[in-house]
Write the structure tokens for this entry.
Amino acid sequence: MAYVVIEDFKAGLDGRKLPASSPQGSLQRLVNAHITRGGEIEKRKAWVMKYSLPPAETFGLAGANGVLYVFGSEASPAVPSGVTYQRLVHPSAEDMTQLTDAEFFDGKVFAAALYANGDGLCFYDGTRVTDWDSGSAVTHIAGQKAAAALTIKSKVYTVSTSLLSFCAVDDPDDWAGTGASFINMSNQSAGSETLTGLGRYQGYLAVFARRNTQIWFLDPDPAQNAQRQVLPNIGTLAHKSIVSFGDIDVFFLSDTGIRSLRARDSSNQAGVSDVGTPIDDEMIEYMRTLTDTEKTRACAIMDPIDGRYILGLGARQYVFSYYSASKISAWSRYDPGFTATEFVSMDSQVWARGGDTIYLYGGDDGETYDLSTVEVELPYIDGRTIATWKQFTGLDVVCEGEWTIYINTNPATPDVWSQVAIVRGTTLAHMDISMVGDSPVIKLKLVNERAGPAKLSKVIIHYQAAQAS
């Protein structure tokens, strides 16, 4: 009797082809799990509710040196122990409405905030940076709203409208002193009239607009600053999605999906990598259901333990697992049950804020799981003989945990499933799980709904030649 072995799932989610022609080892659906270094499917850990914040009184989330910060304009909201509140006071006592960004310089927070009267103000270590006030003598930033901030080479850099502004050397309080100045990016490249974010790229600064990206060399002496490259027709709409991935990539969310800046050759000239192409169709379809505000508030983080890129977009989290030695480059999706608006990586832990709750991935011990449903859907499998009629007689799985298994043998009705088994652990000792199905192809769906860890390593499908009915 013949059989087909799905040895691993290294390709992860891949929606570039129809289910009947997708490559073996790829997946049509992978929810609440990711791909491991060995190419196995592993259930994600729980997003554990760690802190409940007073409703609508705080904004944002930042963390460094073991301290989690939230921000607001209220005098003394009842934040829980374990969270530090930093008050950002408007000179006219206006209510704060949003934390635009928070960056660390010398272990202290540089924060940009918006207020109910429309003002945008900046603060360093909780004290207002008056150079940003409306009517300030520093005219290029006076009354401006900082959209993003980044610390590079002894300065804080910000973007507002078309301006890249930077503070004096080693002094985020001073935006007029030695080394402080600005660059009008719209004078350097058309398409940079409204800047959206900043990222580190191989010792350079990537300055993003929505559909334009400039690469700059920066120096503490502004006279040495120089444009290195312009990448037209690509950029980001969400500054918190910009994350350095390893030594050579910068990931970000564009209007067409997740992309990255990557060196094309030894010259280190940047090119745009279509790293997110396997999930483009799913992401673009989902983004059409979101408002512009929801899209611009997308945020991302690098998992410090497993090195995964996690992008929070609306109620979903898209996850990229990359392990070059194992030749793994795989996407998956988490449905966490909340909309992440901030991520923080600190002390080998990943924190997220959703609404007025702060979550900790994996809980205090880093090994906590919940009842999240894991869904795995394979494309149609043909045993490399797609035009041959087969009688499918059984299957085996190498797995941990409990999995409910469904099959479909008719590409004309891809969403109609028949349950064939519930397995608890590897079935190889039982030879195979019996089933009956006549078709040239078969696809499987496996579902885990139990608390605790779960893995799926290998699938074996048994069949024999049959006559077309």
In short: The longest strand covers residues 390-400. The chain has a mean pLDDT of 94. The chain has two helices and 40 strands.
